[in-house]
C-alpha cells in the first residue's frame, strides 16, 4: 500500500470510530431515559451461547396460555430441526447427484 492509501484508510477508520462512539452514547442515553421513565428492560437470555432476546415462558406468559405457547415453541423447534436435517442431507448428496447426471 502507498502512504496516501494508508492515510486515507486511517482517516476513514477514525471517522467510523467517531460515528460508532456517537451512536453508543445515543443508545446509552436512550436506555437511561427509558429507565428513568420506569421502563424495565429485561435481560437477554436466549440462546444461552449468544443471548439475543429475552425468553421466559414462565414469567412472561399468563398461566392459562402457557401450554399453547409451549406447544407452538416445540413445533417451531421441530420445524427448524427438520429444515436443518433436510438442507444438510441435500448438501451431502449433491456431489453424488452431479456425478450421476454426468454419466
Q: What's the count of strands? A: 0
Strand content: under 5%
Structural class: mainly alpha
Q: How many H/I helices?
A: 3
Seen as an oligomer or otherwise, the chain set is single chain
Main beta sheet: none
What ranges have pLDDT less than 50 throughout 5 or more consecutive residues? none
Helix content: over 70%
Radius of gyration: 25 Å
Tell me what the structure shows:
The chain has helices spanning 3-36, 57-60, 66-102. With 103 residues, the protein is mostly helical. It is flat. The mean pLDDT is 85.
Task: Describe the secondary structure blueprint for this structure.
Blueprint: H1 3-36, H2 57-60, H3 66-102
Features:
73% helix; 103 residues; mainly alpha; 3 helices; single chain; flat
Question: How would you sum up this structure in a few lines?
Answer:
The protein has helices at residues 3-36, 57-60, 66-102. The protein is mainly alpha-helical and 103 residues long.
Amino acid at each position: 500500500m502507498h502512504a496516501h492509501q494508508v492515510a486515507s484508510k486511517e482517516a476513514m477508520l477514525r471517522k467510523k470510530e467517531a460515528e460508532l462512539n456517537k451512536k453508543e452514547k445515543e443508545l446509552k442515553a436512550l436506555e437511561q431515559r427509558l429507565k428513568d421513565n420506569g421502563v424495565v428492560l429485561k435481560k437477554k437470555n436466549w440462546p444461552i451461547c449468544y443471548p439475543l432476546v429475552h425468553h421466559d415462558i414462565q414469567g412472561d406468559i399468563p398461566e392459562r396460555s402457557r401450554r399453547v405457547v409451549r406447544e407452538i415453541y416445540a413445533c417451531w423447534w421441530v420445524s427448524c430441526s427438520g429444515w436443518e436435517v433436510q438442507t444438510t442431507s441435500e448438501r451431502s448428496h449433491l456431489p453424488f447427484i452431479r456425478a450421476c447426471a454426468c454419466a
